[in-house]
Amino acid sequence: MKNWSLWTGLVLFGLMLFISFIGPQLSFIEHTPPEHRMRFYDGGEIGRAPFPPSKEDPLGTDREARDILSLIILGAKDTLKIIVLITLVRYVIAIPMAFLASTKKGIAYMVSNGWYSLFGSIPTIFAAILLLEIVPVGGLENGVDWKVVLIALIEVGRVSYIFAHEIYEVSQKEFVQASVTVGSTPFQLSVMHYLPSVSQSLVVNFFNDLARVTLLLGQLALFQYFIEHAIDYIPGGGVFQDESGYNSVTGLFDWPGLLSAARYEVIKAVWIPLFPAIALTLLLLTFQLLSEGFRRLFERRAASDKHGVVRRAVERIGEAFVASKMAGVVTLVVFVVAVGAFVVSGVKNGSKTSTVNVGEQAVLNAKDLYGDGKYMLVNNKVIATTVATTAKGGFYDKLHYIDFHMEKKSDRDYETDNLVLKCRTIGAGRCELPVFTFKEPVATVEEAYRLLADHLPTDAVIEKEFQDNESKYIYSLQSSLLEQSYTYVSIRGMTLIFHLTPEKTIEKVEMEGL
């Protein structure tokens, strides 16, 4: 009987690897964002992003006219990387703990059982959200690395509990008891007997955990947790624009991030979150098929006793390794390399943000292209230099400006004495779709607007105002600085949506571009 689960899983996994490493080199992949969000058709019709799936864009585009297919293919590699990294960290911690806890006594056994009982009593998604909210890692230089560790830690207790039980069962077998009688050390027992006996279960559970992590990241994305997803995509935008192309400020560009950034588009353009969700589902199915396929493969080998040859070969290798005087040295080197790789990856991730000031200085020192101070030529690219500055200086929606003038509470939350700012999405180092919540209800719309003055372009004027319904009052603002700063993406002003309470006070204000 053919093992269709394994073969299907291997084919899908091969496809994922092809997309991850070869896909970005394909000719139809768009590595740079479009300059315009509008398209002109025959007959004088005008279309504005997002565009639905078509021959030109098989999976459609998002609201910035970015090709969804290109975004998914470009994000595949980081998606696999982050899922595998979380699972590896989980197993690196859980397996040694399982060996220590397999005696069913001592501190390791108590910690393993307590860990499993604590996080096993609540859904994993709730545990993840609680950890990410309670532990303040968002403001750390290597915040993404610490989030990886936190996500990995949640189910360390479960993995440790499973393998501690399996190792205990093996330890009660006669051939293990015989080894103990002749004086084998715990390390020798682990290498010669325990690891060969649980290796098949280790493979099956590892792929199963890859599927569990994939599902968890997809769930977290719906709540905008885990990765601070920020993609550079504004071509010719402000004075401090980053290099064009699809790049993440955190150094990671993944499918959960795409799903998180697109969740607000589900009503207007369902294809934007739909295709990243399908990609994640397909990846989850791949890992589940591999887990089930390997389980069936090992069961079939167990029935035919072929696995005994493999196990005995592993045992002989283990005996040779233990007998070698280099065993301890090799183990130490492997541990140091693993820890070093994790630290270095964090350093690299943090170092990417340190080049922004250099880029900004290059723009400021660049040649005035037309002699009017509005455009500079930087690396053979025309960059708009007009910035919609606030009363305190700095582009009103640039994150580095917000970081300087407000207290950062989390990845997307900032506050002052009077209000809290939440960025619903992050893009090109900017706060997009900001929401202001006042710490105390404000009596009038005029007073609320005055409190927001420091967060608006200095030349912003109220073009019109009206009450949309009993719960919303609208200010339409016009700003020449804002319009010139966003020449290529056709933003000419902004809308302030004041949310009224039943008592007619204002507690929240939403800001959107026009």
Describe this structure in words.
The protein has 514 residues and is an alpha+beta fold. The protein folds into two domains: 240 residues, MetI-like (MetI-like fold); 120 residues. Strands 3, 7, 8, 9, 10, 11, 12, 13 and 14 form a nine-stranded mixed β-sheet that branches. Strands 4-5-6 form a three-stranded antiparallel β-sheet, with helices on one face. The chain is elongated, with a radius of gyration of 28 Å.
How many domains? The number is: 2
Terminal-residue CA separation: 62 Å
Unreliable stretches:
228-252, 319-365
CATH class of the largest domain: Mainly Alpha
- CATH architecture tag of the largest domain: Orthogonal Bundle
Over all CA atoms, what is the radius of gyration? Answer: 28 Å
What is the number of helices?
16
Q: What general outline do the C-alpha atoms trace? A: elongated
**Secondary-structure element order, N to C:** HEEHHHHHHHEHHHHHEEEHEEEEHEEHEE
Helix content: 40-55%
Beta content comes to 5-15%
Output the CATH homologous superfamily of the largest domain.
MetI-like
CATH domain fold name of the largest domain: MetI-like fold
